[in-house]
Design goal:
Structural class: alpha/beta
Low-confidence stretches: 1-10
Strand order of the largest sheet: 4-3-5-6-7
Order of helices and strands: EEEHEHEHEHEH
Largest sheet: 5 strands, parallel
Shape: globular
Helix content: 25-40%
Radius of gyration: 14 Å
CATH superfamily: Response regulator
Mean pLDDT: 91
CATH class: Alpha Beta
Length: about 130
């Protein structure tokens, strides 16, 4: 499926470059397998806000998929705020936390989706398909 972003940009939704931010190695591997089986490329991974910010300065993904709770000082919500302010690329949250205050804070950063762990392949595929580029 092709998705048209700006008038000069055309994205092949089956071959996106995706950057993953997740502090659990097992979940990282699981998400990688899901995304690759959906036809996407993993352009990088991180377990912390700090490394993600450093990597994203040079890697230009089509989409970021990030957990909320990360290793180190920053959170996925902090990363969402950073992406909005400096990078202007779409991102999806995935987290096991469903507390109302956290959901409100996450929603305020305008993610493309908020997926509750364990993330299922079809949920991930649908979230990516509905992403606005």
């Amino acid at each position: 499926m092709l998705h048209s972003g700006s008038p000069n940009t055309l994205f092949d939704m089956s071959n996106l470059s995706i950057y993953l931010v997740e502090d659990d190695p097992f979940i990282t591997i699981t998400l990688k397998h899901m995304l690759v089986s959906l036809g996407h490329r993993i352009c990088g991974t991180s377990c912390s806000y700090e490394k993600a910010v450093t990597d994203l300065a040079s890697i230009k993904p089509d989409l970021v998929v990030t957990d909320i709770m990360l290793s180190g000082k920053g959170t996925g919500i902090d990363l969402g705020k950073y992406i909005n302010k400096y990078l202007h690329i779409p991102f999806i949250y995935q987290s096991s936390i469903t507390a109302d205050d956290l959901l409100s804070e996450a929603k305020a950063t305008l993610p493309e989706a908020y997926l509750v762990k364990p993330v299922r392949k079809m949920e991930l595929a649908e979230a990516i398909e509905h992403t606005h580029f």
